[in-house]
Design a protein that fits this description.
The complex is a heterodimer of chains A (about 230) and B (about 400). By secondary structure, chain A is α/β, with parallel strands linked by helices. Helix content of chain A is about 35%, strand content about 25%. The longest helix of chain A has 18 residues. Classes of the chains: A alpha/beta (about 230), B alpha+beta (about 400). The complex binds adenosine-5'-triphosphate and magnesium ion. The site of adenosine-5'-triphosphate has 12 residues of chain A, from β2 and α1. Chain A: One of its GO terms (molecular function) is ATP binding.
Chain lengths: ~230, ~400
């Protein structure tokens, strides 16, 4: 399997002097194509920070992030934006959507940026609405959707542009258990059938149960990088 | 519609009150600018009109050298050269022919020096306000021995209508003293000291006789049909009159202090505009930053999913552009009605004095196409300039930080 993202000796410090916070301290992980992994650890252990670095939303204080063979240090902000647009799908814990856009417009946002022709866009959007059980909600604004519906729209937006990898920061934290499970099952399905790569940060046992790899973080350090045998292909 | 423009358009309606207030600020700046411009134009016109239409005329023709020396010998002998051209010129409304010389007036009680004008009553009435300024007695009819003097001079000489006044002056070509007896036929009051205390008017024919000129005159004063024509010191009319030993000039050259004043008016409009723009742009920057800070998390998301920094700049600039557009539409509508209203009703300005001339009319605002082209466009340009800083700020947002600033 090929490596999608490589990182080595990642450090991310915030503040300075007395107030220096080492959110990440010498972390090296590689992400392989087709992974379904979870970064877990207590609050403040650096999960979000790591996920942001992996996705090129932030640059490390020390260390290297290599996205599809390119060190992000050598990429302009604009090139990095384009890379994220074309290769990475993000789902955040909450408030993922642009409030002034409808469900359909939110889902096609990335495709509009990519310049996907409108017939193709429509086709893919309606496919997604169908898969995620969002039929009939296409014209609503985020404020008119429930938290679970909003989260599903965010997942749809992340997946619809067919990125190589989806990074999801506590995607189920705001969902009730049933909605969370159906969302996870759907993502697992995409992973198995289409080989889409998923990395989560989570506290959620349901995700941990389904993940093939668990990266345990504590105080900015990898405590354990665990491949789960029961999932081995 | 382009996604970014669609976003920008919808975004400005998210916080209706803020958008309204920002637009109000911009619209008011535009209205203030348009009104200031309209008032300034009105004031300039009023000043020009007062100085030209009271007596001097919008332009004058003399024999070369007369304007510098006021030498009675320097008169235009063949006035028909000038008169024919003016008669044929469609740009000319009216002209009047005048002799002008220094003179001594004596009454039974007193003596005074003054400026004696010989004029053709009918022609004069079409160019200057002499006839309207008459407060007592009757106007010049062309009969010999009629004389009009100002109220102040009448006081000084202690004369009443019908009283005798002896005018003494020196004739042309040799300076022989010449005297003539008049009977006071009219008293005028222009409300300007210079005129009311020292100007005397008699009939042109008689003035020629006592000056010893057969024909001719010292000055031809004229007005244009369109006052704007007088502003050009090199207009076709002026150029065609300035031939041989005759020189013509419009008020722009005749009254240099007035031209200077008008240049200052332009400059003061620039200052008013500058201050307004400074205040307005601070308001815009402030309100844009408020709206950006409120949406910083959302911007973090948008950038995380691949919106480029340049697209963020476009978004903010487009929001500013739409704000400006809404503002100028509103501002122009209100300005139009205000300019229109005050162009009829006028703005009472109290009494102003300029160059010894008191101006007491209301100032009527004047419409100009620039008020609805250049000024609104400059408001748009200003808004865009003011938006550059917030836009660049937005482009520099680091997604991970913005996402952290969440909720
Ligand atoms: N932008 C920032 N500025 C300052 N400190 C930060 C910033 N981002 C993260 N930190 C600090 O870095 C540490 C790790 O934060 P991070 O958000 O990665 O934790 P987490 O594991 O995602 O926690 P949680 O489970 O609560 O989301 C925390 O101590 C946090 O306070
Ligand atoms: Mg986190």
């Amino acid at each position: 399997m090929s490596k999608v993202i490589e990182t080595s000796h990642l450090c991310r410090y915030f503040g300075e002097g007395e107030l220096l916070v080492k959110a990440l301290d010498d972390v090296s992980i590689d992400v392989e194509e087709g992974e379904f992994s979870a970064i877990i650890g207590p609050s403040g252990s650096g999960k979000s920070t790591l996920l942001h670095l992996i996705g090129g939303l932030d640059k490390p204080t020390h260390g290297e992030v290599i996205l599809a063979g390119t060190n992000i240090e050598s990429m302009t902000r604009s090139a990095l934006s384009n890379f994220r647009r074309d290769h990475i799908g993000f789902v955040f814990q909450a408030y993922n959507l642009i409030p002034v856009l409808s469900t359909i417009e939110n889902i096609e946002y990335v495709m509009l940026m990519q310049g996907v022709p409108s017939s193709e866009r429509r086709k893919r959007v309606f496919e997604m609405l169908d898969i995620l059980g969002l039929d009939g909600l296409g014209g609503r604004r985020p404020a008119q959707l429930s938290g679970g519906q909003q989260q599903r729209v965010a997942v749809a937006r992340a997946m619809v542009s067919r990125p190589n990898i989806i990074l999801a920061d506590e995607p189920t934290a705001n969902l009730d258990s049933k909605t969370g499970i159906s969302l996870l099952d759907m993502m697992k399905d995409l992973n198995v059938r289409h080989g889409m790569t998923f990395i989560f940060s989570t506290h959620d046992q349901k995700i941990m149960d389904r993940a093939r790899r668990l990266i345990h973080l504590r105080d900015g350090l990898i405590e354990l990088d665990e491949q789960r045998k029961e999932f081995a292909a | 519609m382009n996604l970014i423009l669609r976003l920008a358009w919808r975004n400005i309606f998210r916080n209706g009150r803020r958008t309204f207030l920002t637009c109000l600020l911009l619209a008011c700046s535009l209205i203030a600018l348009v009104l200031t411009d309209g008032v300034m134009r009105g004031m300039m016109d009023l000043m020009v009109e007062t100085t030209t239409r009271t007596f001097a005329g919008e332009a004058q023709a003399h024999k070369k050298g007369f304007r510098d020396s006021f030498d009675v010998d320097l008169y235009i002998e063949d006035i028909s050269i000038v008169a024919n051209k003016l008669e044929a010129d469609v740009a000319i409304e009216a002209y009047t022919i005048r002799t002008m010389s220094g003179a001594m007036m004596s009454s039974a009680d007193n003596m005074a020096g003054g400026l004696l004008w010989g004029v053709d009553g009918e022609r004069e009435a079409k160019v200057s306000k002499l006839k309207e300024a008459l407060v007592d007695g009757s106007y010049l009819t062309g009969k010999d021995n009629e004389i009009l003097i100002g109220e102040e001079l009448a006081d000084l000489l202690s004369v009443e209508l019908g009283d005798r006044i002896v005018v003494t002056l020196s004739q042309v070509d040799g300076g022989e003293l010449s005297q003539a007896l008049f009977r006071l036929s009219g008293i005028f009051k222009f409300g300007m000291r210079e005129i009311d205390s020292s100007m005397i008017f008699i009939n042109l024919a008689q003035s020629r006789k006592i000056l010893g000129m057969e024909a001719g005159a010292h000055q031809v004063a004229f007005n244009f049909v369109n006052a704007k024509d007088a502003v050009d010191p090199e207009s076709a009319t002026i150029r065609s009159l300035s031939t041989g030993d005759i020189e013509a000039a419009s008020w722009v050259d005749l009254q240099p202090q007035m031209s200077a004043m008008l240049a200052m008016v332009d400059f003061s409009l620039l200052i008013v505009g500058g201050i307004l723009f400074l205040i307005a742009s601070l308001g815009i920057i402030n309100s844009m930053f408020m709206s950006i800070y409120e949406r910083i998390y959302e911007f973090g998301v948008a950038m995380a999913i691949g919106t480029r920094p340049s697209q963020m700049v476009t978004l903010i600039m487009a929001e500013a552009f739409f704000l400006a557009l809404l503002s100028i539409v509103g501002g122009m509508i209100v300005s139009y009605f205000l300019i229109d209203y005050f162009s009829v009703a006028g703005i009472p300005m109290g009494d102003m004095e300029f160059e010894g001339i008191s101006i007491h009319n209301n100032i009527k605002t004047i419409f100009d196409i620039s008020q609805f082209t250049v000024l609104p466009l400059s408001v748009v340009a200003l808004t865009l300039v003011a938006a550059i800083y917030p836009a660049l700020f937005t482009a520099r947002i680091v997604p991970s930080e913005a996402l952290h600033k969440s909720l």
